[in-house]
Design goal:
By secondary structure, this protein is α+β, with helices and mostly antiparallel strands. The chain has 3 domains: 10-176, no CATH class; 193-222, no CATH class; 236-336, Cytochrome C3 (Alpha-Beta Complex), CATH 3.90.10. The chain is 18% helix and 16% strand. It binds heme C (3 copies). One heme C is lined by residues 236-237, 275, 277-278, 281-282, 286, 290-291, 295, 305, 315-316, 318-320, 323-325, 332-333.
Length: 346
């Protein structure tokens, strides 16, 4: 697959993590998922999270814990941003020192447990993680569908995305220990019909040790019978067009969607079939303001879309890969054959 390099660079990282203009904003009315007393302060700039059982470095890698805060001493020339391979190499190098034994790059599940949901810029508890760069942090988890990418957590906004491992320099926060699973696992009883129904919930998130989970409707039951795409995922566009669901235009249920019936053809697709963006389908359940002008100005050629930008969560990737079908379903966007394009290879 061809991907253009991402434009975010180390220069931007330097500005952010210099820490000068930190402007954390928090919605104090929102639920506080990260009170400071969730953490036990240990010696040497380490904290233990009582909820997950994990120990964390209070400072991002390359920063020093001094006088209760974290410092990035520019004179020391210690690196604090890494490409993904460099981050792994640096962690391996450090592990040989006794004070770093057992410290490692967190998995995406682990790093996400630090997201302060009511705060941004950074989306971290800054008492526990002082002077933390509001920047992207690598995780050890590769993107299952494309090993050139790994998951990162953007601690400016608290969002999680898969980014190209090689292209950009990100921060790293080391972790130690084992994540306490929040879901208990049922005792398996082969042949028991109730156990069979419980097994359907056994996804590592739900608590299958409590049979009350069966009071909930399982997503498989809710989604059974809906049309599927070539990847056997629900084809929500078809569900909508076929009238199997009727989303409301507003909370009150009395408005009408403004449907805009204009296909936009994107032809800068190299040897891939061209891309059709159907306004009609999108505007059947998205207001114009969802896209115009924050994501796309309402004019042709207003933005430079590429697979790199889509995979890093911009342009079409604001939704596709998150709330709409994944960028890996190439054929659903690249649907218009042209001379020199493959006819079918998926
Ligand atoms: C899901 C995102 C999305 C939604 C929702 C959306 N648009 Fe667009 N719109 C686009 C994209 C993408 C383009 C093309 C931008 C480009 O070429 O850079 C575009 C372009 C346009 C253009 C320029 C077309 C041209 O030929 O110059 C107009 C006009 C427009 N949109 C109107 C609307 C209106 C009106 C609505 C709401 C009824 C709407 N759009 C909803 C994504 C959207
Ligand atoms: C959500 C819609 C969507 C999906 C899914 C999608 N693409 Fe694209 N692709 C685009 C758009 C939009 C462009 C930009 C076209 C333009 O600027 O004219 C593009 C551009 C490209 C290009 C041109 C070079 C580049 O990187 O921009 C290639 C090659 C490409 N896509 C391959 C793929 C492959 C392979 C897949 C599946 C793994 C895929 N695309 C899935 C929308 C999509
Ligand atoms: C604001 C969110 C949003 C953005 C931005 C967006 N889409 Fe979509 N798109 C959706 C949703 C929601 C669906 C329907 C759900 C699904 O199919 O997963 C959809 C469906 C589609 C479909 C399927 C249409 C069909 O009839 O099967 C195509 C093709 C598509 N999008 C292409 C694009 C391309 C190309 C871009 C970028 C130029 C883009 N989308 C940007 C939300 C978005």
């Amino acid at each position: 697959m061809v991907t253009k390099p991402l434009v975010v660079g180390v220069a931007a990282a330097a500005v952010l993590s210099a820490g000068g203009a930190m402007a954390q904003t928090c919605d104090l009315n929102a639920y506080d998922n990260m009170p400071s007393n969730r953490f036990v302060m240990l010696d040497g700039g380490v904290v233990r999270d009582r909820v997950t059982g994990l120990e964390w470095q209070r400072c991002a890698l390359g920063h020093d814990f001094v006088d209760g805060s974290c410092r990035d001493d520019p004179k020391k020339q210690v690196r604090s941003w890494f490409s993904w391979p460099d981050a792994l190499a640096e962690v391996e190098r450090l592990q040989s020192a006794p004070q770093f034994q057992g410290w490692r790059l967190p998995t995406v599940q682990e790093l996400r447990t630090l997201i302060y949901r009511r705060c941004q810029d950074p989306a971290l508890n800054t008492e526990v993680f002082p002077n933390a760069p509001a920047w992207f942090y690598w995780t050890a988890t590769s993107f299952a569908e494309n090993p050139d990418y790994a998951w990162q957590v953007d601690f400016k906004t608290g969002e999680t995305n898969a980014h190209l491992k090689s292209s950009i320099s990100y921060n790293v926060r080391l972790v130690k220990g084992e994540l306490i699973p929040t879901s208990r696992k049922r005792e398996e009883k082969p042949g028991d019909p109730e156990d069979e129904r419980l097994a359907a919930w056994d996804d590592g998130i739900h608590d299958t040790a409590d049979a009350d989970i069966l009071l909930l409707q399982h997503p498989n039951d809710a989604l059974a019978g809906l049309p599927r795409d070539g990847h056997d995922r629900v084809d929500w566009a078809k569900v909508l067009v076929d009238g199997l669901i009727q989303p409301r235009a507003n909370r009150e249920g009395d408005g009408e969607m403004v449907v805009w019936d204009q296909d936009i053809l994107f032809t800068d697709t190299a040897s891939m079939p061209h891309v059709v963006f159907p306004h009609k389908l999108h505007s059947m359940w998205l207001a114009c303001e969802n896209c115009h002008d924050a994501i796309f100005p309402a004019q042709r050629g207003g933005v430079d879309i590429s697979m790199g930008s889509i995979y890093s969560g911009e342009h079409c990737g604001v939704c596709h890969g998150k709330v709409a079908f994944t960028p890996n379903a190439c054929e659903r966007c690249h649907s218009v054959l042209h001379e020199g394009s493959p006819t079918k290879w998926w």
